[in-house]
Amino acid sequence: MTRPTRTQPIPPIEVALGARTYRILITSDDPAPFGPFLRESLDASWAGRACRNALVVADSGSRPHVDPLLPALAAHGIEPRLHIVPAGEPSKSIEQAERLWEALAAMKADRHAAVVAVGGGVIGDLAGFAAATYARGLPLVMVPTTLLAMVDSAVGGKVGINLPQAKNIVGAFHQPAAVWIDTASLATLPVREFRCGLAEVVKYGVILDADFFADLERDVEPILAHDPATLGALIARCCALKAQVVSQDEREESGLRAVLNFGHTIGHAVESVAGYGGRYLHGEAVSIGMVLESTLAERLGWIGPDVTDRISALLQRFGLPTVLDGTEPAMLLEAMTRDKKNQHGAIRFVLPTRLGSVTLTDAASVENVLSVLATRRASPE
Ligand code: GLY
User: Fold this and answer.
1) DSSP letter, residue 323
2) Any idea which residues carry the catalytic annotation?
3) What is the reported pLDDT for 346?
């Protein structure tokens, strides 16, 4: 990573989607540009140009990050109304979506009212879903405050809620008008959640960028110490990689966007069997999933053990789990049959062909998958 100094601003990152193109602005403890950036971004679209009010959605964790934003909205002609959602995955529900629709109705929102989502993945997905559906689509501004949301869920337009049967199963593609990231909000993020974001960061290196992976191996210490310049550069690199993918395959139709699901076929199964909000957080399940899916690529003869060893070692240095403890392989396999990537009943995986490159495949046999799920890989260190 080229590390800018703390005073060097990071140029905005563009997600190029024709008329729906938007920018991601990354700052470090500097709320001043928020108002102008937001107004300029909204003014770039028909709906946003006439925006005079906004529903600002947060939870108890992200509530403190809202305070500097409210006066900035008001100063730019946007009257804010705050809506607090209970923290946690259960809030990605139709009941909470309905409360947001009602709050929008109570403020007499027309098609120009904005929704500003301030928080982690749950808030972005839920508020984004309300924005996508109310009045057939309102301007959405993402203000991610967790590392996972900054590098993944706030960018790319996937919004949605859960059903008891499946995560993220009711949703839409609804691109934001702007994404505002202030890395200072990571200072108060619980360490376990910060590590979960690092699992998605490592994922970008494995799927798209071997040099970035090597930079992460070099920068473990400054990353764990929250060095602002290192974190800013790391988030910018991930956002740029995701922007490239989303620009080319917005709706996950060509197979390109599916590469972002490396580690997620097994990871989602691990989460679902353990129970959401249970033993494993999303990033932890993805960390285990990446190591097991890389082991599956070894079984297919696509890569040598050195690739999996490097992935596993880096995840461990970031304090992430890499070994499944005691979940029944047959239950995981059953959960994988419900994965959204599957086609005609075959389980599809995104597997590495080398560090920095992956392929979507249904070539893995059930026997291979079951044997990998039972693997207890020795620690490479
Ligand atoms: N988080 C995967 C995607 O945005 O496609």
Assistant:
1) S
2) 136, 158, 200, 242, 252, 257, 261, 264, 268, 282
3) 82
